[in-house]
Amino acid sequence: MFERFTKDARAVVTGAVEHAERAGAQTVDAEHMLLALLDREGSRVSFVLAALGGGEWLESVRSALGEARRRGGLSQAEADALAGLGIDVGEIVARVEEVHGVGAMSGDRKDKGWWSGRRSFSREAKDVLERSLRIAVARRDRHIGDEHILLALTTRPGVPSEILADHGVTHEAVNRVLGGGGVGEAKAG
User: What is the pLDDT of residue 107?
Assistant: First the structure.
């Protein structure tokens, strides 16, 4: 499948691995793929994100991903559902970090020991790549571009799609921008 990826899509996959390495994660997750997409310049995704107001909120997305990682990967919707049951996720994170150090629930602790070897892709990251292929095929595109990876991230439940949707980056909005729908129309979605 990787041979069908454009140069930009390959750069996203490579960037995701680099984000995982910097975080000390043993697997490449969907969140790492989103971070790699946010790093892109001069690509279709950078155009789409700029058209959707990305210059104003890219740091907010990075911050929201960091907060979700601190919550052990729980989305805000999951944290809110637990709050409805009387469980304060923020308090649990604070207590765990008090005992085990900042980042204990995220896997970002630096004292875990040295990791060597290739990082595998998590089930979620593999799903994003498979969805990107399906989206490219459905759109009758010959190659899988970084825009297909962004579209795939918007279609699966979880932290990346929730954070993107909070910033107006939905599947429908991305499709409108890619289809030439105009910036104002895309923002309304």
Answer: 54
Q: What is the pTM of this model?
A: 0.76
For the segment 108-126, the average pLDDT, to the nearest whole number, is 67
Q: Using one digit for the tens of pLDDT, what is the confidence trace for 87-108?
A: 776 677 666 666 766 665 655 4
The domains of the chain are located at 2-71+120-188
Counting other chains too, the contacts that 126-132 makes at CB distance below 8 Å and 24 or more residues apart are 127/30, 127/152, 127/156, 128/30, 128/33, 128/152, 128/153, 128/156, 129/1, 129/13, 131/155, 131/156, 132/9
Pick the CATH number of 2-71+120-188 from 3.60.15.10, 3.90.550.10, 1.10.1740.10, 1.10.1780.10: 1.10.1780.10
